[in-house]
Amino acid sequence: MAQPLPIPPIAPQAVGAEHELAAAVAFRIGRPVDSWAVVAALESEGWRDVDARERFGREDLFGLGEDLFPACQVEAGHLGADAGHDDDRESAARLAVGFGASYGRGLLYALPVAGQIAALVWLGYSLWASVRLTEGGATMIAMGTIASFIVTAGFVQALAHETSRLLGHGLGGQARRMAFRIAGLGAAAVAATGALGFAVNLVVPFYPVELAAVGTTYYVLLGWLWLALALLYAEERLWAVGAATTLGILPVWGAVAGLGWGIHTAHALGLVVAIAVALAWAAWRLGASAGRRERAGRRERAGPPPPLPRASTVVHTTLPYVAYGVLYFSVLFADRVVSWSASGDDPLAYPLWFRTDYELGMDWALAVIFAMLAAVPFSVRRMSGQIHELAHVADPAEASAHMRRQYLRHLAALVGIGVAAVGAVWWGGLWVGAHGPALLGPIFEPGVTRTVFAVAAVGYFFFSVGLMNGLVFLAQGQTGRVLQPLAWALAVDLAVGFAATRGWGYEHAGWGLLAGSALFAAVTTRHALRMLRRADYFAYAAY
Questions:
Q1: Handedness of CA 212, 213, 214, 220 (dihedral sign)
Q2: Percent of the chain beyond pLDDT 70?
Q3: Which residue in 407, 378, 350, 361 sits closest to 532, CA to CA?
């Protein structure tokens, strides 16, 4: 398997010669069908008539596009017009090596979670959890955690989208400024909504003031932590993420074991330290390599660094990704709200109350989604790259048939990994319950937790399938094909979960997740197969 080509810059500020611009256009759209396709590619990357005049002496973009068209044809030939069929010729061994490397990197995303679990088992507490919490404390932490994920999800997606776009153009300084600007807006939104929620609880006392203060503190600090870590995830600095969350545990340990502090105060200290470490690392390293290339390019071409896009432009371009992030976490956590609001045998003292046995089953099943999502980047990168290369093919029908075959292969591989993951996580849990630390033994005993795991594991299986489809759509700019199914999944999740919990008990809320995720997987799979029937069109339309 050939190594992926580096993405040549195409932004007006990053291109100094016509052949560089032609190569960048050809890399993105393949062999253009006419000069209008070249102009469309330039406009999609921010080129204006004034750029054509000032940089290349053309009257407007259409003149530049006409002159670049022959060079783009030549550059597309150099890149290889039939690269989309490489999969059929690649050996299984080389594909396996590429997948193994990608899968191993994907598993690193679970590293911070693994570190927190290890700390919880070893010390009895982690960065924001503890085995000695009261039910009230656990409820507030759980509610704060869920709310922080949902509220920050849109900002995290917008940050990732804009930062990766600017880094791809070699604009490291602008990427850093944009990332910190979006993270700052997210932090302000978290603080404002936290204060508003606390004030509402003062007027309408759903919870005692002490519990509300605890929940608000965790909500704000966890929200800020997710935003700070997003700055590191923007360049996939996974070891830095692990370092920040691990270093945050040290002050918790020192405050509890050495100073005798309460767990909530110790958690607050640890979260502040983790946030500070992540922010410092991001301020130091985010965009550093791209920034060096940017400064070198400016020395060659002269001129000031380009300004950041207007806020209205950023809002317009990132809004679908914001909606995706909010819907994503809403689907994942809707079952908790449904379960914790079901009274069961005894009436609830408060609107939502943490169910330990239910949450343990859901957390156990999370290992399935981590195992499956580690395989998704490999499939999404390969399919997206192959779709892009189809814009110039001579036989669209054959190309679409080829892409459907490739898609079904990736889908079959993900399904196989998912089935293996469900079995491995189930038997692994039973083994840990029998032979692992005594603290974990009760978790895997027969009862509610096992039942919840069985349902949730299948739900996460379907959700991962839908997510692979959805990420392919997002890569092609087909946001509606993932947002609509996610909205339907959320509605089904809530409706089925509510009916199941009110009819049979709180432990059956996972059936809502399973039903919603199955719908998400089915609809997005159908959309994917329909899209790939016209893969050449969507490859061209993406630009």
A1: positive
A2: 84
A3: 407
Mean pLDDT for all residues in the chain: 84
Ranking 81-95, 99-113, 203-217, 452-466 by mean pLDDT, the lowest is: 81-95
User: DSSP class of residue 256?
Assistant: I
User: pTM score, two decimals?
Assistant: 0.79
The three-state secondary structure class of 487 is helix
Model confidence at 458: pLDDT above 80:
yes
Contact status, residue 189 vs residue 155, Cβ threshold 8 Å? yes
**Residue whose pair of structure tokens reads 């022959």 in the numeric block:** 70
Largest CA distance in the chain: 78
CA atoms of 172 and 192, how far apart (whole Å):
30
Residue 279 φ then ψ, to 5°: -65, -40
Instruction: Identify residue 301 by its one-letter amino acid code.
Output: R
Q: Find the mean pLDDT for residues 188-207.
A: 96
Compute the half-sphere exposure of residue 170: CA atoms within 13 Å on the CB side of its CA: 19
| Burial class of residue 79 (count of CB atoms within 10 Å of its CB; 0-12, 13-18, 19+) | middle
DSSP assignments along 201-226, one per residue: HHHS-SS-HHHHHHHHHHHHHHHHHH
